[in-house]
Amino acid sequence: MLINQMYGWRGYGSGFTVEDRAGQITLVARDYATTSTFGTITVALDGENGLLADKLYHEEIECLRVEGRRLCEMIKFAVDKSIRSKHLLSALFHVAFIYAYHLQKRTDLLIEVTPQHAVFYRHLLHFKPAGPEKLNPRVNTRGVLLRLNLDHAAEQIRLLGGQGESSKDRSLYPYAFSSKEEAGIIERLRNLEPGN
């Protein structure tokens, strides 16, 4: 599994699986002709069981809940390292964003990452620090909690989406879908929801 390949070689543990549970969606980018998987991302919604990040950052996350923030968490985001594509990264992120923001009405996206990976999320997607560096016993390495205000992401997508390489912006937002493409994806995802 791609998750095992991406995280196992770094010594962060092995045996990662994508869980089927209520309140989360896993997106997989694959070539159906060859069944090759190029990338995955899972978005888990905050609910009665909390978030995975609550194990280390319960106090910080609880403060956001008290403020009335509607939280979700990005977990198991991996892209095949042989594929260097801003379009693929952005497409996976954008569909996850659509699910969280437009369909589930979430206000903030959280992620736990290593300090080295925090640079990627801060520069390319505008995440902000939300908790101090701590040892994460699940993966036996240090991690930090980051937060993305989804209103900010929506504005960046509105301003930059669909521009690709023509944009001078260095983030992933120019590689997001255009507003017209986003509207089509929202409609298709709504049609997949139970009761439609």
Annotate the secondary structure layout.
Blueprint: H1 2-8, E1 24-31, E2 36-45, H2 54-66, E3 71-79, H3 86-103, E4 108-113, H4 115-125, E5 128-136, E6 141-149, H5 150-160, H6 179-192
Parallel strand pairs: 3-4
Antiparallel strand pairs: 1-2, 2-3, 4-6, 5-6
Helix pairs in contact: 3-6
How helical, in percent, are the residues? 25-40%
Give the number of domains: 1
CATH fold-type name: Aminopeptidase
**What string gives the helices and strands in order?**
HEEHEHEHEEHH
Mean pLDDT: 86
**The first-level CATH class name:** Alpha Beta
Structural class, by secondary structure, is alpha+beta
* Quaternary state of the chains: single chain
Question: Quick one: biggest sheet?
Answer: 6 strands, mixed
Compute the number of strand runs: 6
Q: Can you tell me the overall shape? A: globular
- CATH homologous superfamily, by name? Gcn5-related N-acetyltransferase (GNAT)
